[in-house]
Write a structure and sequence with these properties.
seven-stranded parallel β-sheet; 18 helices; 33% helix
Length: 550
């Protein structure tokens, strides 16, 4: 008899409990109990999916010589070939892919891995490096006059720096998420490389010191903060100047008075993380540009591994390959929305690209449990701020009363352009369904936010940009995600793809959202949503989502 009887739980409550079960036999026993009861199809599917995940984890990665490539996505193929170092085995895999699914993306991933393992077959020759001002003398090169263009080679880089954003007196959840992920990454890094590199939390603002204990509890080893009453609101110039100055302290380009500090003895950070929020996106690009490095934006996955590269621009000699270690692999959704690209920031023979920097989509990682017993070194960073950085005064601010955080709900009901025939009624029906669940809230697609729909006043307050789900909005991972009248564009998929169960309601049999939904109800949301609401209220959601010939 399993410890949990699924018949005693609604699906929204059962999902989180299943995540903690690692024994497939216990899960099968739960499945048998469910089938003995009401036999709710969504609950059965939920348990079956968990069994598949647990067994897949136990069996390890797929055997490339035996796996059915047709059952793998292009992303699965990319992950599999990353661990294959035998060029002949990769060629066999490439031949099987071409004879079978023959997907351009999968073929490209295998070919790229072959190049990385084997290197180019071109004749070995040194790659000539010509400075751009010499290679293109007819062009204007304003970067030559930049104060801090350095072209460092073999610099000393350490630690992972995390910019922790705050708003309206609160530390944003994404800041906690990044600290937890940074802690995990650097613990693994230090074990793998025998190092003692740190997680450094950066705080800037009018009340920056208020968050020192919280960022420490969430994983920081060192907290560097600058506090000034003029920094109550985010401003591009002062925030950029302060963060860059902090990161250069103790290095070759340190500002006056910060050439020698007892908390940092290296040139610049090894890695930097920023939140992919409105302000975080701005700051990440500005800081990484000022540090003369690159940025992988809007990432949802991070890991540190070595990588074999054969690109002559990175290796220095055509026909050779080189292994780069301590490389931060930064995964982000590509333009198709159905696959992910992994971005690497790798040095050239005559040029360092550090820090390796990424901005992180909110909701990508779990918020760690805080440890109130953790201790960290704390630095109140002293820097005189130039009055010119505050040339524009903010005289009045209209602040929203409260905010909307959809990331913690068990259920999210989202509506899109399908409400266009009667926008107010569409929002009302969605809110009725939200109210039928114990822990749910309303989300919107970008199409609703950018539309010119006229809403009656009693629902107008719900149609705000902060409810937008997608690449430029919130990322949610609820147990149940109901997408009504949403086509499933790339940007929206990024915001909901990690939901346990996705139920789509759409009149279009070719809508993209069908490709990544667990259940699809082909019908008008104005007819389907009331039925879903009734089904939830009566405890009979399953019959509504069963496939039918209607």
């Amino acid at each position: 008899m399993p410890e949990i009887d699924p018949r005693e739980y609604e699906i929204a409550d059962l999902g989180p409990k299943l995540k903690a079960i690692e024994d497939p036999e216990e899960l099968r026993a739960m499945l048998d109990l469910e089938r003995e009861g009401d036999a709710r199809p969504p609950v059965e599917t939920l348990i079956e999916d968990r069994i598949e995940k647990v067994e897949a984890a136990e069996s390890g990665p797929p055997d490339p010589t035996a796996v059915d490539l047709a059952e793998l996505s292009t992303a699965d193929v990319a992950n599999m070939v990353r661990d294959i170092d035998d060029a002949d085995a990769l060629r066999t895999l490439l031949e099987r892919e071409r004879e079978g699914p023959d997907r351009d993306g999968a073929v490209s991933q295998i070919e790229s891995r072959i190049d990385s393992v084997e290197g180019s077959e071109e004749q070995t020759e040194a790659v000539e490096t010509v400075p751009p001002e010499e290679k293109y003398p007819e062009l204007d090169h304003p970067t030559n006059e930049k104060q801090w263009v350095e072209g460092t080679v073999g610099g000393d880089y350490r630690d992972m720096w995390v910019y922790c954003e705050t708003h309206a007196g609160e530390l944003l959840d994404v800041s906690r998420e990044m600290l937890g992920k940074a802690r995990e990454l650097m613990d693994g890094y230090n074990e793998a490389y025998g190092s003692e590199e740190r997680v450094v939390a950066v705080l800037v603002g009018a009340d920056a010191s208020d968050y020192v204990e919280e960022v420490t509890a969430h994983g920081a080893d060192l907290v560097v903060y600058h506090e000034d009453s003029r920094l109550e609101r985010f401003r591009h110039t002062p925030y950029t100047e302060i963060v860059v100055d902090m990161m250069r302290a103790g290095g070759d380009l340190a500002s006056e008075g910060h050439e020698a500090v007892d908390w940092k003895e290296y040139h610049e950070p090894r890695y930097t993380l920023f939140p992919a929020t409105n302000n975080g996106r701005d700051l990440s690009a500005l800081v990484q540009g000022a540090l003369d490095s690159g940025l992988a934006s809007d990432c949802s996955g991070l890991y540190i591994e070595s990588e074999v590269i054969s690109n002559p621009a990175k290796v220095g000699t055509a026909g050779e390959k080189k292994e780069f270690d301590r490389v931060l692999h930064m995964k982000r959704p590509d333009f198709s929305g159905f696959e992910y690209s992994t971005i690497l920031c790798i040095d050239k023979p005559n040029r360092d690209f550090h820090p390796q920097g990424a901005s992180v989509i909110p909701g990508s990682f779990d918020v760690p449990d805080p440890d109130p017993e953790r201790e960290a070194e704390v630095v109140a960073y002293d820097l005189e701020l130039d009055d010119d950085w505050f040339a524009v005064d903010v005289t009045d601010v209209a602040r929203l009363s409260g905010g909307v955080d959809l990331s913690g709900n068990d259920v999210v009901v989202a509506v899109g352009r399908g409400i266009g025939d009667d926008p107010t009624r569409g929002i009302e029906l969605a809110l009725d369904l939200v109210d039928a669940f114990e822990d749910a809230d309303l989300g919107l697609s970008r199409g609703v936010i950018t539309s010119s729909y006229a809403f009656d006043s009693h629902v107008e307050e719900y149609v705000t940009e902060e409810r937008q789900i997608g690449e430029s909005g919130q990322v949610v991972e609820p147990d149940i995600y109901i997408a009504a009248g949403i086509s499933g564009a790339v940007q929206h998929k990024v915001g909901c793809d990690e939901a346990e169960t996705i139920i789509a309601v759409n009149t279009d049999p070719e809508a993209d959202i069908r490709e990544f939904s667990d259940y699809v109800i082909e019908g008008d949301l104005f007819e389907v949503l009331p039925r879903l609401t009734e089904a939830v209220e009566t405890g009979r959601l399953a019959p509504v989502v069963e496939a039918s010939d209607d």
